[in-house]
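Chain A, query sequence.
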Amino acid sequence: MKTFVIAGCGRLAGIVSEAVVKGLLPEYELVGVYSRTVAKAERIAGRMAEAGKSCAVCTTADELLALKPDILVETASPVIDRCSGVEERDFYRDPFDRCAGR
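Chain A, predicted structure.
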C-alpha cells in the first residue's frame, strides 16, 4: 500500500479523500492533510476518522512531509488567490484566461 498526503483542502481534496473513504483507491492510504485553513484540514481528517481511518492534520508543510509519504497530492489553487473575485465555478471553466483578464 502506498501512502499519500494532500496539500490544500478544498473541493478537490474532498473528492480525493471521499474516494479513499468509499474504497475507490484501495492501494492508497491518506495519512495527512495540510491547508492554510486548519478547519478545512480538520474537516477532511474528521471524515477519515468517521470511516475508521487515521489521517493527521498538519499545520506546516514540514510537518506534512515528516510523515514520509510516497506521494504528495497538491490540490491548492494559487491562481484563484491571484484572481480575487473569481467565482470557483468560473475558475475551473477557464482559469488562465480569466486570470489574464481575457
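The chain has six helices and four strands. Residues 79-102 have pLDDT under 50 and may be disordered.
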